[in-house]
Every structure is written in C-alpha cells, then in structure tokens.
Write a structure and sequence with these properties.
Number of helices: 6
Shape: globular
Order of helices and strands: HHHHHH
Radius of gyration: 16 Å
Largest sheet: none
Low-confidence stretches: none
Helix content: 55-70%
Mean pLDDT: 78
Length: 135
C-alpha cells in the first residue's frame, strides 16, 4: 500500500504546471495520496498494517468494466438515491470510499456488482437491488 501511494505522488507531481492537465485535479490528487501516505505512517507507528485497498478499483485492476460502472454509480444512481442512505464514515469499503458520500456509494456499488452482497451495508444493499430490478 505504501509503494502504491508513493508511486501515485510521483505520478501526480509530474503533472504539476504541465499544460493540458487540470491543475486543481492534480493538486487534489496530490493531497489525497499524501493523506493516504500519512495514514499508512500513523498505522505503522501503532504497529498496524493497512488491510483494505485505497479504492475498490485497485482490487479489480484487470476488469475493463469497472470504470464505467463507477461512473454509472456516480452520475446515474447516486443522484437518485443520495437522500436514501447513510454515509457511514466508519464502514467504508475502501479508503477512497471514506472521502465523501458519493465515493462511499460508488465504491460499495462496484464491490456489490463484482463481489456480491457480503458485508454491503443493509441500506445500500436495498438500493442496489432496487437498481438491479429496474434494469
């Protein structure tokens, strides 16, 4: 997990002040991965290791459909269901899922679609099944 965060920081640093790159997104990416590295440092100082992926997408790295599925979760479904589930900061499927309510929803949705219902929060599971039944 440490190497992944360090590699991403190097990657994002290479985009700083380069034409064609949205500098706001570059800075957000840098901030996110630096925070991740800080979290890893804190866990290691406590003698703990990080066991979950930064993003569910990391655990599905070879699946070509994951990006479209995540975008669908954000733009098609989240907007319709935002008020119908709780953002449980203490129960994200990934670090990225803990960043905000939209990412929480999208990360759990990808997990549900690719790995099934195990551990999916009940309020989200109900919504995901509703989505499946509508399609």
């Amino acid at each position: 997990m440490r190497k992944e965060a360090e590699d991403k920081i190097i990657e994002f640093e290479s985009y700083v002040n380069k034409p064609g790159y949205n500098q706001k997104k570059v800075e957000q990416g840098l901030k996110s991965f630096r925070q991740r590295l800080d979290t890893i440092d804190k866990l290691e100082k406590q003698g703990l290791t990080q066991t979950r992926h930064f993003s569910v997408m990391d655990s599905l790295a070879n699946d070509l459909d994951k990006k479209g599925l995540t975008l669908n979760a954000h733009y098609r479904y989240y907007r319709n269901f935002e008020s119908r589930f709780k953002f449980d900061i203490n129960n994200p499927i990934s670090d990225y899922g803990a960043t905000n309510k939209s990412e929480y929803f999208a990360e759990w949705y990808v997990q549900y679609k690719f790995k099934g219902t195990k551990d999916v929060p009940e309020d989200l599971l109900k919504l995901f099944k509703e989505i499946d039944n509508a399609n």
